[in-house]
Amino acid sequence: MPPVVDLNADLGEEVTDDEALLGLVTSANVACGYHAGSPAIMRAVCALAAELGVSVGAQVSYADRENFGRVPLDVPAAVLREQVADQVGILSAIADSEGVPVRYLKPHGALYHRVRDDAEQAAAVLEGSGRLPVLGMSGRLLTLAGEAGREVILEGFPDRAYDGDRLRPRDRPGAVLTEDDAIVTQALALAGSVRSLCLHGDTPGAVAHARAVRAALEAAGWSLVGL
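The chain above was modelled as a monomer; its predicted structure follows.
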């Protein structure tokens, strides 16, 4: 059997062509309203995901629409737990009504990076998200999830530069890759070590990047299967 990989993208953020991306990816990280999105947008994404057979995940964030969830915030653990539960609950209700389950959890932006190191914040995210599998990079969140018996799913980023095992901060030169060739090369290099590859929906040219990455993966013998 061919090797399997997932191609995911951040959707419902009001900054990209959700319909076009849903025709290319196998999993959709749906913004749950705290950094972007709305119930109407969530419903539209979930409806099309159900039609196309794309898996849906809850992309939870700090409550910070002004900064797109990309600024670190000091949120008490009890508050963060309830915020995550609220986001997962809202998306789950909408997704269920459209005939597609929420299959996994993925933090967004500053929260994504915070829970790689902060055990208290990571625990709050887990406590607020039930028993959903957790998608992310290695760190405290995935370690705690695994210890709790939850499924953990490693991902890599074809459209971001790495410094060691970390993503280069967005305020540094070269942090975001924009050329198809570079993104495809990184996707093929990452595919053997992670279950899922993430393309940022808010990156200029995201649809073209997704099309190029999918074509290259399939040409290299990978079978694209959602989470």
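The chain has one domain: 4-224.
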